[in-house]
What does this fold into?
Amino acid sequence: MNTTYLPSDFLPIVVQFGLAAGFIVLTMIVTHRIGPSRKSKMKDDPFECGIEVKGDARTPISVKYFLVAILFVLFDVEVIFMYPWAVNFQNLGMLGFIEMLVFMALLLSGFYYIIRKGVLEWEQ
Amino acid sequence: MELTEFVIKSLVILVIFGLTLLIAMYSTYGERKVAGFIQDRLGPNRAGPFGILQPLADAGKMFFKEDFIPAQANKWLFIAGPCLAMLTALMTSAVIPFGDSIRYDGLEVAVQAVEANIGILYVFGIVSLGVYGVMVGGWASNNKFSLLGAIRAASQNISYEISMGLSIVAILMMTGSLSIREIIEQQHGGNWNIWYQPLGFIIFITCAFAECNRTPFDLPECETELVGGYHTEYSSMKLGFYLFAEYINMFISSAVISALYFGGYNYPGMDWVYAQLTSAFGDVAGHNVATLIGTAAFFAKALFFVFFYMWVRWTLPRFRYDQLMNLGWKNLIPLAILNIVITGTGVLFLKPIITALLN
Amino acid sequence: MSSPTIQYEYRPEHFANSEPNKYTAATLRREEMVLNVGPQHPSTHGVLRLEVVTDGEVIVDVVPHLGYLHRCFEKHAESLPFNQIIPYVDRMDYVAAMNSEHAYVMGVERMLGIENDIPKRVEYIRVLVAELNRLASHFIAIGTYALDIGAYSPFLWLIRDREHILRMLEWTCGARMLYNYIWIGGLFYDLPVGFEERCSEFIKYLKPKLTELQQLVIENKIFVQRTAHVGVLPLPTAINYGCTGPVLRGSGLRYDLRRVDGYSVYPELDFEVPIGKGEVGTLGDCWDRNWVRVAECRESLKIMEQCLEQLTQNYPRTRDFNPQAVVPKKIRPKAMDFYARAESTKGELGFFFRTDGRSDVPVRCKARACSFHNLSVIGDISRGALLADLIAIIGSIDIVMGEVDR
It folds into this structure.
């Protein structure tokens, strides 16, 4: 296994991207060309179980979803912190483990706080 | 990178790309056959022998359907949604090592698009981009059901990504590398991670189900509440892309599961097979045949997990949104952290003792 | 070649009042959203339209809008002789046509005063086919409920078993769903030769399947999670709304017209009336209602076994038995108001007749549809639930739109 990577080593990803993008664009164009197109006002309405739609669907949505998103950002950053630690875990030994235990204790106390605050109560 | 190597790499990519698409296509057929078997009926059996041409017929139908865009939808985002979903699904296979290596003309080329030292991070990065496809498509439709489905999909995917990432950390602690190839190589000789990480495996596979929006976590597209979920308004190949992306994701996540926990292209007795083959066919041809067998083992494992996805889908009911979030946040995250602590203790304390005892 | 553009005629004024809404932009609070669930929705069990006001995923109010399957049963009945109404009765609750026929026919027989002349064999056959149909109806209810919860396979398993029932019923009268088998004063035909044996074989086949079903669906952990404590219907509410059948029994009241009224040969039969006990959740939740249905399937099997025993031993098939012997030539009841009721699969199915004594047609024939009364409770029990729970609640009430709208 080589340990140093040149930018050129990642060239195949570009090839794969090109392949995927080409496939998608081609398929989209083909399906757009060969399918029929019959338009009418009723048909172009958004589907709402056969009832005429009143207003815009993009109404304000519950704040709970945003809380989840914010929590995700917080926690994911902390997960990312763990990756370099985990890779070097066996070299860091005991000290690293204790440090990470402290880190995780802090993380869990924050986690406990948000649970007690009722952020993760979905029923209300 | 030399030209020959690059050409071989490109060929490998092309083959894997084609295989991914083929497997995704035939997963739809497989799903319906499995469903038929479980539900005591036949499944598709009209198009070709045993209905083997059914996916082609479906794809043809998708192409010839009307490419419908609702009047109130945001046209470009509406098109971009499924394209993004498909693109991210197709990009993931780049770092997965499907086999050992191919020897050709003095070169040794790995059966993998890119051997990257950040392989697993790449997979996570691309997978988390996948939620954009769903979110953009659902929002662009300007439909209440689609929007609800899209929001559900987004919050579900990001919630389960955390525990997924945490469950991987335990593996990384044991292997000390982010490269999937290295993780696989370390599992050589029946030393599979599943023996050491049963809890991590359960967490990971649960999260994989949630990330792929499969039953029992198929809330974003749950038919009985949200009609079609985020793809309510979609038709023709755009709908096909969403469904296709789901099956590709299923296959890729199965491949990742078998790479991380089930030894990837390792199989019992592979050293013996390797020795026999190289002595029979010579160093180059024997090695290539051995690689091929390893790749077949890898695909067999991955396809078993694809089957597992289907098995679960046709057996279990689905969760409710709050139960899903509770499971993700209140059960899986603490469990994953516990798993890390257990692994750390095991590696630091138990491993030296066991090694000392064995010697 | 471009395909022709078809412009369908669209006039907003045609639709202005056809789909009324209770909630408008003026009456909604800012964070609330109106979601129309139905009529074209996969899990409203037909063409029910629910106007759902949600705040996020939490339901604030549910307003059912009916009438999408209205077929003027009652108006039709006012211009048809009594015996010709039976096919229309079939089409009310189309998954349990035998039970509806049984209720209707008994009502007319009582008005004519011939209910005691009916041969015992006919009565046992009626009960047998009605219980078969009850099984079929409950299979649909449980199966589609599992489908609503997200489990696909139980539905198809139950459809497979229901198919056996439908084949048997087809064998008796030639129709799979809408039988017109039970006639006023008798039956269309006697049971076909060999029916009894086939039926007992089916019962033997079905018993382990029911256990399997209970293990797969009812006792499944996710299923319990989805249905326990959800859509709790307290007994007083159930009684106030006039709920009957499994919905009422799920709330814990042992009220079954087969026992309360004791019509037909039911008093001679030995069976239990299962009620909800709140075993895994609150009394009267969705799980209880479903458990009652599964338990009723077992009881139906018991009833069928006893009927078959009677039919083969005490009232066996004879060469000169005529199931139409008591069928009146002219059906003209005296002038009266009459209400007859029976336990259909979904609850109390009643028929109110007003006759003038001069003609063969009823002046008024009103059906008291159990699904309609059970459905009325939906707004009350789904307030504050999640959107996913609403689907679970609709399914647990087990409505058939044909009966709700008539």
